[in-house]
Amino acid sequence: MPTPPRPLRVAVLASGSGTSLENLIRRIDDGSVPAEIVRVIASKPGAFVLERARRRGIPAVAVPRKDYPDPTAFNDALHAELADLDVDLVALLGFLSLFELRERFEGRALNTHPALIPAFSGQGFYGRRVHEAVLAAGVKVSGATVHFVDEEYDRGPIVLQEAVPVLAHDTPDTLAARVQAVERRLVPEAIRLFAEGRIRIEGRRTRILPA
Predict the structure, then answer these.
(1) Which tens digits make up the pLDDT trace of 1-11?
(2) Which of 19, 34, 49, 198 is deepest in the core (most CB within 10 A)?
(3) Distance CA 187, CA 3 (A)
(4) For the domain 8-113+145-159+183-198, what is the CATH code?
(5) What is the Cα–Cα distance from 142 to 179, expressed in whole angstroms?
(6) In this predicted structure, what is the pLDDT of residue 2?
(7) Which is the catalytic residue, given 79, 113, 147, 169?
(8) Cα(200)–Cα(196) distance, rounded to whole angstroms?
(9) pLDDT tens digits for range 95-142
(10) Is 113 one of the catalytic residues?
């Protein structure tokens, strides 16, 4: 009998409560995503994502951003945690710092952003701040984006993107809820496509290959 291919080995970087991690774990458990999460790294020691990971038996560690004098030192610590894991993909799920690819993870790191990149994106645009900016601008649509990481915030080639309407009565919380519902579909789908080798990066764009 041929040996089945191993699941995609994923490391997750996060900074918050870990709802996106929990959603991804469920999609892995139900067979939708052929992957395994081999480590969770949080940039805040009190982030609840660590507890979510440990409850699921996933090795989890904090690398507190505040403990490092600059982004380079912080990334040194992140890469030290990843060094021995044979990671295929790094998934940034609500990670608030810039992850340096250092060639090792070029084309192998995905980020999710709660808006339609390039709108409402870049350094300083994260979480509730994004939705507040969307409402303040009076735009009629927002959405979610999954993209490859590059050397700048929220700039890498887009893999999946989906719009949601901005309603007249929206608050940052109601808009966030609709955007997060889209993210819960897009993130596992992007990781599944990556695991199947169906994403091709062509310059600033990506092409999804047929199954």
Answers:
(1) 555 678 999 99
(2) 49
(3) 28
(4) 3.40.50.170
(5) 8
(6) 55
(7) 113
(8) 11
(9) 999 999 999 999 999 999 999 999 999 999 999 999 999 999 999 999
(10) yes
What pLDDT, in 10s, does the model give residues 2-53? 556 789 999 999 999 999 999 999 999 999 999 999 999 999 999 999 999 9
Q: Please count the other Cβ atoms lying within 10 Å of the Cβ belonging to residue 48.
A: 16
How many other CB atoms are there within 10 angstroms of residue 170's CB atom?
17
Q: Is the per-residue pLDDT at 76 higher than 90?
A: yes
Catalogue the E-assigned strands of 118-173.
141-148, 158-165
Q: Within a 13 Å sphere around the CA of 148, how many CA atoms are in the beta-carbon half?
A: 21
Whole-model pTM? 0.94
Domain limits of the chain? 8-113+145-159+183-198
